[in-house]
Design a protein that fits this description.
The complex is a heterodimer. By secondary structure, chain A is mainly alpha-helical. In chain A, about 55% of the residues lie in helices and about 10% in strands. A two-stranded antiparallel sheet of chain A has the order 2-3. In chain A, helix 3 packs parallel to helix 5 and helix 5 packs antiparallel against helix 6. Chain B is about 35% helix and about 20% strand. The chains are: A mainly alpha, B alpha+beta.
């Protein structure tokens, strides 16, 4: 089972342990928090998601944990795996963006960022992530007024 | 196969620290 293989998981019911909701500032259910092994929150999933999208978000959280621990190789690999496995998901757009950042952090080669911008423009042209990456291609998209 | 959930936040945090493993906390409420 993926969750038991990858995480130390706990289920928290508002009826049984309302204090935990307060402790982690959870204001909506379902909410899933991914913390690193020292207990620092790294990713938050609020609201229901279909199974595949939820799985992609869990993978995104694992990639984020690697990224925040400056494990650039692992982070880049995890982000690219998300793109491979969940390519049609909106989560893939975010994964493409961060794979580029992790690659840049690893290599200090800024040319990768231009390639990432092109990839986003090709596959997710209307996404926020394509807009964020547009600056890497030397383009500034119009700000919405 | 079903997920084996630990019975508290602190149990999950302890296991995460002991096994150097990320922690997943699933917050839920009964249906309204």
């Amino acid at each position: 089972m993926f969750i038991n293989d990858q995480f130390a998981p706990a289920s928290v019911s508002i009826k049984k342990t309302p204090a935990a909701f307060h402790r982690f500032e959870v204001l909506w259910t379902p909410t899933v928090l991914l913390l690193d092994s020292i207990g620092k929150e790294r990713h938050r999933i609020e609201g229901y998601l279909p199974r595949a999208e939820f799985a992609a978000q869990l993978e995104l959280g694992l990639a984020r944990i690697a990224f925040m621990h400056k494990k650039w190789d692992e982070a880049e690999r995890r982000y690219r795996n998300i793109v491979q496995q969940y390519g049609s998901s909106p989560t893939a757009a975010e994964a493409i963006y961060w794979s580029g950042v992790a690659s840049y952090k690893r290599t200090i080669d800024h040319t990768v960022l231009r390639l990432i911008s092109r990839e986003l423009e090709q596959h997710f042209p209307n996404s926020l992530w394509a807009r964020k990456a547009s600056i890497w291609a030397g383009r500034r998209l119009e700000q919405a007024s | 196969m079903s997920i084996h959930w630990l019975d508290s936040v602190d149990a999950a945090l302890s296991e995460g620290a002991a096994k150097n493993r990320p922690v997943l906390l699933n917050f839920s409420a009964p249906p309204t």
